[in-house]
Amino acid sequence: MNLLKTSVFNCLFVCSLIFFLFFLLLFPKESFNAALNGLVLWFRMIIPALLPFAIISGIFIRFHIADYFSFLFKPIIGTIFDLSNEGSFCVLAGFLFGYPMGAKIANDLVVDRQLSKNEGEYLFLFCNQASPVFILNCVAINCFKNENLFLPIFIILLSTSITIGIVLRKFFYKSLKWDSKEKVLKSLNDNTSPFEILDSCVMNGVDTILKLGAYIILFSIIVKMVEIILKDFYYLKTLIIGFLEMTNGISYISSLNTSFQIHFLFVLFCVSFGGISCIFQTASMVKNSHFSMIKYLIVKIMTAFISILYGILYLKFIY
């Protein structure tokens, strides 16, 4: 049975690659422009927004600064989720830095032996979210043309993540503590100078951003493919693009001729789910820690629907 599933998956994967190749050959101009748009998006938004955080978070982890930095926030975050200091830092950074930094930091903390794999996977499942900067600029201002919507959208998405974190902690990750025989922290003076560590953090951050750029360009072409194939099916096209890639999905939603309420809920779904593109980006960040991407996909779907529920409550009783 497993062999059959593998064969079917391999067949579908090869067919998809062949179809993608034919699209590149049949629509070279459109493919080039889509790749160029993805490159510009990566260069103008992703690099300045994420590269500094990728480097700084790496420095915090390698020099064990996260333990001290999160001390101020541990009473709040630790009380809600019952985490270590390092875990509290991961939650804080994941909520503030944006996709896929939450997943990367959880992975790096596990690889650096500052978190158990169990606690790292738990954090990875719920603290990998859109950043406040993205919500303000791309959602509130660009999509809704109303920056006053930033706060309710941010609170809804934050409340959704907290809800998921509490549910996972109570029912699925009841024990996160290290076995005392298992925890072995790396020594900072094991023949590695601070300059070598700093250089390693910079190169790791650059490698992270390059991976994100490649996925952004790839999915920009896939989105263009969907646009061309489904050009006469606007609503279906918008739904698929929103499922594939968050930023393009939000842009399409803003042009739909539907009510504000539908726009609002659709955007919440896109941002909380993140899109298949973000899932692939996240997978590339956690391959060293071997976190379960099946669990992650299930949790992201749950997150999307809970955010819609909170959105409905907001529209009904507050908006």
Automatic annotation (TrEMBL):
Superkingdom: Bacteria
Entry keywords, A to Z: Membrane, Transmembrane, Transmembrane helix
Segments traversing the membrane: 7-27, 39-63, 83-102, 122-142, 149-168, 208-226, 260-284, 296-315
Annotated protein name in UniProt: Transporter
Biological source species: Anaerosacchariphilus polymeriproducens
